[in-house]
Automatic annotation (TrEMBL), chain A:
This is Thiamine pyrophosphate-dependent enzyme. Keywords: Oxidoreductase. Pfam families: TPP_enzyme_C. Residues 60-207 form the Thiamine pyrophosphate enzyme TPP-binding domain. Gene3D superfamilies: 3.40.50.970. It comes from Actomonas aquatica.
From TrEMBL, chain B:
Residues 503-600 form the Pyruvate:ferredoxin oxidoreductase core domain. Keywords: Oxidoreductase. NCBIfam families: OAFO_sf. Pfam families: PFOR_II, POR, POR_N. This is 2-oxoacid:acceptor oxidoreductase subunit alpha. Residues 43-206 form the Pyruvate/ketoisovalerate oxidoreductase catalytic domain. The keyword Oxidoreductase applies. The lineage of its organism: Bacteria, Pseudomonadati, Verrucomicrobiota, Opitutia, Opitutales. It comes from the Bacteria. Residues 242-474 form the Pyruvate flavodoxin/ferredoxin oxidoreductase pyrimidine binding domain. InterPro entries: 2-oxoacid/accept_OxRdtase_asu, PFOR_II, Pyruvate:ferred/Flavod_OxRd, Pyrv/ketoisovalerate_OxRed_cat, Pyrv_Fd/Flavodoxin_OxRdtase_N, Pyrv_flavodox_OxRed_cen, THDP-binding, Transketo_C/PFOR_II.
Length: 301, 621
């Protein structure tokens, strides 16, 4: 029923950074999001999907401007709700590669409910959350991941609410691929984005991406160049399919570890719905639309 | 009959032997009867109402039903009214000819709705009516007779079917067809249930209700066979089938009464057409999914009832800005807030036209009866696609559940085949041209020699890329407004029913169509010069309304919402603003019940001689 773009072939032209580049980003100089964008270009070059099949969507916030800086189909939906919007794209068009970008406010606060539900449905898409632990576009209010004691315009005496632990929330949400990276680690980001894109199901990558304007130094503890340590998960030692192990890893003290926390294979909603369609169509002899409708009317006579 | 009857047929001693106007003894053919069944929601009276309505529809009779259910989880008073007969049945009837009362409260609350000379049939196990010469009271022990017929362990189940048997006998309904319908309905519960159901039916059918039969004998059927088979269904089902015919294969929603049955049916029906309906996590998620489907290239729908539409408003503004086609159904109910969730009101008009933020013009349509629920869905689909715009369909609780019979639509002629155009676009491709209608290139479309287009809620240039340029915002705002105006010019002029000029023009929208028609017919019989127009297109308005209004001395807008701070209902307020015509006034009410013909005629009489702006069910303070 859905239209299908051509599948990648060996003759497919190489997708280049140049072809993927759109407007120059409007982010502040030094923003961590530049590195995320560069890593995304590189991941796409390596994945080499047909250019027209790539869709980049986003919600609202600094990081959600991301799709404007990628030359692809896509756009910019309303605050917090880009995940169900993108799920609509993915569920009805299996030929597309759907990427969603957003920040900690978009993903964990206003869109927190949508994130949980699209994750539990295991809709096939890739969600990149660029976490800077502050509301930047609106000029420094407390975010759901701002640490306790963080001084902002809404908490001038220091934040008093307990922050969300993104990894614990994401592992718990039902997402089938949960990973974490750091905007200063380009190679690691490229690997995480690629693995998320190739994962069948709801794949989410949280990237710590510093806001140099309103929360500088937030992630220095995990940046070797600033005296911190970037510790990568040893996938030989960590059972990614064990939710308890993933939660234990997610509960480690700040700044914790980086890499794939959780990765399981579970049927996607895309596949399950397709199965229901095949069954329902077969039950009705794969009849054409007009025949099916006439049968329904006949029962109402 | 296999079940001997141990009970006496009880007729109240004070009742007249026959109701007013009927010939004594001689069976009489009637062509229009209104039966009101009153009981509790778990008694299954909606079920028998549905059987009667479907039977009538299958017997070339016209039928219209009306129901109320309580907004409690279980239990609570409930009614089902069915009007059957020949000719144009336009409303479910002001007054009942028959009241079937299951309980004391059913009797007390509804006896005033029984016409003078009507017949009260009551359950002697539960009801002790006050006897009155105004009606004929017939006692029948529904409960104990059913227990007797079905067996001791059945508790009170099946008495609805007992009553159905009784009614079937009273009106000489087609037993074979009716028992066929019953078997169809209960077969899935197993042979035991079917057998018990038939036992209850037979017991009711065998009940010696001879006295009543002498008065009401046989319901006439229409003999003018149009050649089209009739189908019988409710408004929400008709809407669903209209959507499928329009090419809708994708949608999303969140449960809320009375919208839910549309999503339930689409969830189960769309699969066999290769489509998909998502039950979303909330209303905001639902419209987001639906817009995702639309962006991906599908004609998609979402819907809700009043409070749910409010939650969708932010995304609706986005859809207006991004100019994506989308059908949004609002099954209106009493408001504000959770208000009267199971009663009817038409108070979401302003929300539908002006809700959301910024200048966000959109299309708003309203179906006028069950059949029109089907055709308006088709029209909404066509407009949404052609003008790349959200289209809101304002239906209501009364239409959603009301059952009517109408000509089966011509599927071959109407069926729209869904199609996604992925033709490659060149360097000249602009999805948002300033001087032409917006045309999207869905993802999967190759774009050669130009940047890929973006969809966004930010003001944008012709390629969809953000632009904060003041002149650009002014131009794009005008573009979005002008396409809706352009649609307005292409709409058909409303037809005037009744007098083409005269004293009073009644203007209505939505489910008030039938009662308004009947009111005009009755007023004209009384010698008044009255016309009626019914607006299916509420935003934009159809052309030539000004000219139509000018032919009548007074224009009364009849609608089920409040008269507002300044004395006018919602549509009347809009029409007064649009046409600056002081002849336009309001007849409004907000009691949660469908307009009765009498209420409309009283309103017209009162308003014609009144200096006040409007009449409504409640006095001014």
């Amino acid at each position: 029923m859905s239209a299908t773009a051509e599948a990648p072939t060996p003759e497919q032209p190489q997708l280049t950074k140049k072809a993927l580049t759109a407007d120059h980003p409007t982010w502040c100089p030094g923003c961590g999001d530049f590195a995320v964008l560069a890593s995304f270009y590189r991941a796409l070059e390596q994945l080499n999907y047909p250019h027209e099949s790539i869709v980049t969507m986003a919600g609202i916030g600094c990081s959600s401007r991301f799709p404007y800086f990628v030359n692809s189909h896509g756009g910019h939906f309303i605050h917090g709700r880009s995940v169900p919007f993108s799920a609509g794209i993915s569920l009805s068009r299996d030929d597309l590669k759907v990427f969603v970008f957003g920040g900690d406010g978009d993903g964990f606060s206003i869109g927190g409910n949508h994130l949980d539900h699209v994750a539990r449905k295991n809709v096939n898409l890739t969600y990149v959350i660029m976490d800077n632990q502050v509301y930047g576009l609106t000029k420094k209010q407390t975010s759901p991941t701002s640490p306790e004691g963080f001084r902002s315009k809404t908490d001038p005496w220091g934040a008093i609410d307990q922050p969300i632990n993104p990894m614990r929330k994401l592992v718990n949400s039902g997402a089938t691929f949960v990973a974490r990276s750091h905007a200063t680690q380009v190679k690691h980001m490229v690997e995480m984005i690629k693995r998320a894109a190739e994962h069948p199901g709801f794949a989410v990558v949280e990237i710590l991406s510093e806001c140099v304007e309103f929360h500088p130094g937030a992630f220095d503890a995990a940046n070797p160049r600033k005296g911190g340590g970037f510790e990568i998960i040893d996938e030989e030692a960590h059972d990614k399919t064990d939710v308890t192990a993933a939660m234990a890893l997610a509960s480690e003290p700040w700044p914790g570890k980086f890499g794939v926390y959780y990765e399981v294979q579970r049927p996607t909603k895309n596949a399950l719905e397709a199965g229901l369609i095949t069954k329902a169509r077969a039950k009705h002899d794969n009849s054409d639309d007009a025949t099916l409708l006439k049968q329904t009317f006949a029962r109402m006579r | 009959m296999p079940y001997p009857n141990p009970y006496q047929f009880m007729v109240s001693p004070n009742s007249p032997a026959t109701p007013e106007g009927s010939a004594s003894g001689a069976p009489k053919s009637i062509n229009d009867v209104v039966v009101r069944l009153a009981g509790n929601s778990q008694d299954g009276i909606q079920t028998i109402g549905g059987f009667l309505a479907r039977l009538a529809g299958r017997s070339a009779q016209e039928v219209m039903t009306y129901m109320t259910i309580p907004s409690t989880i279980s239990g609570g008073p409930s009614i089902f009214q069915v009007r059957m007969g020949t000719g144009d049945i336009l409303s479910s009837g002001d007054e009942a000819d028959f009241l079937v009362a299951f309980y004391d409260h059913s009797y007390k609350n509804h006896i005033d709705h029984l016409r003078k000379g009507g017949i009260l049939i009551y359950d002697t196990d539960h009801v002790e009516p006050e006897l009155s010469p105004d009606y004929l009271a017939v006692g029948v022990p529904f409960t104990s007779a059913t227990i007797e017929a079905v067996g001791g362990s059945a508790k009170e189940k099946g008495k609805n079917i007992f009553v159905l048997g009784l009614l079937c006998r009273l009106f000489d309904l087609d037993v074979a067809k009716l028992t066929g319908l019953i078997r169809e309905r209960f077969a899935k519960f197993g042979e035991d249930v079917v057998r018990n159901t038939m036992l209850a039916f037979d017991a009711g059918y065998a009940w010696p209700a001879q006295n009543i039969r002498e008065i009401y004998h046989k319901l006439a059927t229409n003999d003018n066979d149009s050649g089209h088979p009739q189908i019988t269904t409710d408004g929400n089902t008709a809407m669903t089938l209209g959507l499928i015919t329009a090419g809708v294969r994708y949608g999303a929603g969140y449960p809320i009464t009375p919208w839910s049955t549309i999503m339930e049916t689409l969830r189960t029906e769309l699969q066999k057409y290769g489509g998909l309906f998502v039950q979303a996590e909330d209303e905001l998620g639902a419209i987001a999914y639906a817009l995702g489907f639309a962006y991906a290239g599908h004609l998609s729908i979402t819907g809700s009832s009043g409070p749910g539409l409010s939650l969708k408003m932010e995304a609706l503004g986005w859809a207006t800005m991004a100019e994506l086609p989308l059908i949004i159904i609002n099954v209106q109910r009493g408001g504000p807030s959770t208000g009267l969730p199971t009663n009817v009101e038409q108070s979401d008009l302003m929300q539908a036209i002006y809700g959301s933020h910024g200048d966000s013009p959109r299309v708003v349509l309203a179906p006028q009866n069950v059949e029109d629920c089907f055709y308006i869905a088709l029209e909404a689909g066509r407009i949404a696609g052609e003008y790349s715009t959200p289209v809101i369909i304002l239906t209501d609780q009364a239409l959603s559940s009301r059952i009517e019979a109408f000509d089966e639509p011509d599927v071959d002629a109407l069926m729209v085949t869904p199609d996604i155009d992925l033709t490659a676009k060149g360097a000249d491709f602009k999805p948002y041209p300033i001087d032409a209608l917006t045309r999207h290139a869905p993802p999967g479309t190759k774009i050669e020699g130009a940047p890929y287009p973006t969809v966004t809620g930010l003001e944008h240039d012709e390629h969809g890329h953000p632009s904060g340029n003041p002149a650009q915002h002014q131009k794009m705002t005008a573009k979005r407004r002008n396409k809706i105006k352009q649609l307005g010019k292409s709409l058909p002029r409303p037809e005037i029913h009744g007098d083409q000029d005269g004293d009073v023009l009644l203007v209505g929208w939505g489910s008030t169509f039938g009662p308004l028609r009947e009111a005009v017919n009755r007023a004209r019989k009384d010698g008044q010069k009255v016309g009626h127009i019914h607006l299916r297109h509420l935003n934009p308005l159809p052309p030539e309304l000004e000219r139509i209004f000018s032919r009548f001395r007074q224009v009364f807008v009849v609608e089920m919402n409040d008269q507002g701070l300044y004395g006018y209902g919602q549509l009347a307020t809009l029409l007064r603003a649009r046409y600056a015509n002081p002849a336009i006034r309001s007849i409004t009410k907000t009691d949660g019940l469908a307009f009765k013909v009498r209420e409309i005629l009283n309103g017209v009489a009162e308003l014609s001689g009144s200096r006040y702006a409007s009449v409504s069910g409640y006095p001014d303070v």
